[in-house]
Design brief:
alpha/beta; 7-stranded mixed β-sheet; 5 helices; 7 strands; about 25% strand
Length: about 160
Amino acid sequence: EQAAMGQRAAKLKANIKTAQIAIYSTCIGEERNTESAAHLASLVAQQFGCKAIKVDKPVSFQRQPTGNEQKLLWDLARAFRDYLRANPADSNYAMLAEYFINPAGGQMAGAVHFVVCEKSGDWVLVDFQNSTHEDFQRIAPKSVEDCDRLAVERLAKRLK
């Protein structure tokens, strides 16, 4: 699967200027944040010169609580893949972000995850950041907007 993801990521990189990316409502705990999706769409469009659109449909999924961040990340990736297989995106690509943050707390976020899939649900990129990563430490996200910025910066680095 990793090799196939690499090929799909190379294709996105090569075609990013003409790509259309649907940005789904950001997962923050049990909440779905459409303002974050709109902000992400704006940042993605600015960063890559592509068309990015906010999708108001929430991606709902269930998972078992765990302290294993990799499991949380891949549970998110599988849930988004399965959602898109049942509800293909109206764009070439789809993105779903998840933030472990208290939006009103002003404390540093615990983690920032995102998944980019082809419209059919095939994974292109799966990324996570937490306090052990350099980009996370540099940005030190304390707000949803900071998390949005970190997600887009990570997406840009992954597509270099």
